[in-house]
Amino acid sequence: MNKLSLKLGLLFFAFLIMIELILFYFLYTGLVNSRIEDELTELRARGNSHRNILQKHFDRPTIFHVALMETEADTDVVITTHDGTIKAESDRLTPQMEEILQQERDSIPNEGLVVENRWKTELDISTVSPIIIDYQTVGYVYMFKDTTSIQNMISSLKQHFFLVGTLAILVTIISIFFLTRVITLPLIQMTQVTKSLSKGDFSVTLNEIRSNDELGELSRSIHKLAEDLHYIKEQRNEFLASISHELRTPLTYIKGYADLAEREGVTEEERNKYLTIIHEEATHISRLVKDLFELAKIDQHSFTIQLEEVNLNIFLNNLVKKMKPAFANKGIQLNLYYEEEIFVLIDTDRFEQVFVNLLDNSLKYSKSKEVVDIKVNLNDQHVFISVIDFGEGIPNTDLPYIFDRLYRVDKSRARKSGGTGLGLAIVKEIVEAHGGVVTASSTLGKGTKITIQLERS
Question: Vertex 423, ends 418 and 429: CA angle to 5°?
């Protein structure tokens, strides 16, 4: 029996080490490649976003504002003409940047191009997006990102993989000394699980061995590893989807008002008004990105609130005017009802974010020719602001969880419509930071009512 256990132990050791090496190799390379690809995709998307704005207004103020937006970001932008003349840059140029800018650009696809992806050896990764007006390329938007953060992330990942690999080998060696015929079947099961993990199937389950020896510990460790890897994969996808969802709304308004501004017959006063809104939304995006990263990375967080006494009726009227074009485009009527002049202490930027999220949800889940109402009521101590739609509604089983971070009522439909489960979580965080309370009531198939309760000033 001892010889058989030794043979099985040696065979298991050799086989498990091979599986672990394959698993860690593919997992490591997959995570690294995926992260680098995400960084390049995000950098190119950011450049395309700037390019889209510049294609509408390729003038000095717009170029200046695009460069100014990047001064507070971890990326840099350089805007040039077709012949390479630099129109604006968000930071001082490095020799590598100048070398890239001097390269000839004969034909660049409309979706942009990655011009530098050697994160291991170069100081920056970079992309370029063409600015095309009337079918002519009039300039380029170059985006740069420092590779230091990427290299630090890869270095940290290597350390974690080395530590986990070392621990896995130690557990394997220890388990050899406790091999018997009784534990042969559990070992085979563990081998099958590790094979699945090496193929990227992190949803596998393992029957837990309740013994307190090394074999039981190894069983629980593999089970925990599968859960952690599955969780990491889901969180990464949800986090990227969340950023896309939260940025989509302000970018939609920027594009919409940019289209309005370039229409024929628009007066100078109207065009200036549209450009002012575009500038406000662009500034708002910078703050919104910071908030989304904070919400996605930490479990408990707080917002910086700058309270001021605001006429709530005027605030809501301005908000409704700004959002009505989006509702009208879908054939939905947006109404505002209030009884008297009301003043509240709020941070206007934060509360605009609250109502943009609420109204965006109502817009998604309402059909054409339906109505969305904003109603303001009050008593001696409190103000109640309700956003009411008559759309799809929320099932009773989901209603208690809709303010939870990353919770989605219908994952398949939410993904198609752009929802990520962060919008209402942000609403709840901001309202509670103001000392208020947000509640929801809904009837499936008849609509949803979200109510915000605030103290009267």
Answer: 165
Nearest to 68 by CA among 82, 44, 45, 50: 50
Domain boundaries, the chain: 1-236, 237-297, 308-455
Tokens of 328: 């009208």
> What is the number of other CB atoms lying within 10 angstroms of the CB of residue 94?
14
- State how far the Cα of 346 lies from the Cα of 228, in Å rounded to an integer: 40
- Domain 1-236 fold: Beta-Lactamase (3.30.450)
Coil vs helix vs strand at 434? coil
Beta bridge partners of 127: 114, 143
Phi/psi-derived region of residue 319, left when phi > 0, alpha when psi is between -120 and 50, beta in every other case: alpha
| H or E segment and range at residue 333 | strand 333-337
Residue 414's contacts (CB-CB under 8 Å, 6 or more residues apart) are 408, 420, 421
pLDDT per residue over 197-239, tens digit each? 777 666 666 665 566 666 677 777 777 777 777 766 776 676 5
Phi, psi torsion values for 77, nearest 5 degrees: -130, 145
- Residue whose entry in the numeric block shows the structure tokens 């350089």: 78
Alpha carbon of 308 to those of 22, 255, 349: distances in Å? 59, 30, 11
Residues 6+ apart with CB under 8 A from 321: none
- Is CATH 3.60.15.10 correct for 237-297? no
Where on the phi/psi map is residue 337: left (φ > 0), alpha (ψ -120 to 50), or beta?
A: beta
- To the question of pTM greater than 0.85 for the whole model, the response is no
Q: Residue 36: CB partners within 8 Å, gap ≥ 6?
A: 117, 119, 150
End-to-end CA separation in angstroms for the chain:
82
Identify the CA nearest to 174 among candidates 222, 223, 216: 216
| Among candidate residues 361, 431, 453, 446, the one with its CA nearest the CA of residue 396 | 446
List of residues 6+ apart from 329 with CB closer than 8 A: none
Which stretch, 35-44, 269-278, 349-358, 382-391, has highest mean pLDDT? 382-391
Question: How far from chain centre, in Å, is Cα 282?
Answer: 17
pLDDT, position 186 = 66
CA distances from 162 to 76, 156, 165, 227 (A): 34, 10, 5, 20
What's the CA gap between 301 and 308, in Å, rounded? Answer: 22
Dist. CA 224–CA 401, nearest whole Å = 26
Nearest to 100 by CA among 70, 141, 160: 141
Q: Are 181 and 1 in contact (CB under 8 A)?
A: yes
- 291/289 Cα distance (integer angstroms): 5
* CATH C-level class of 308-455: alpha beta
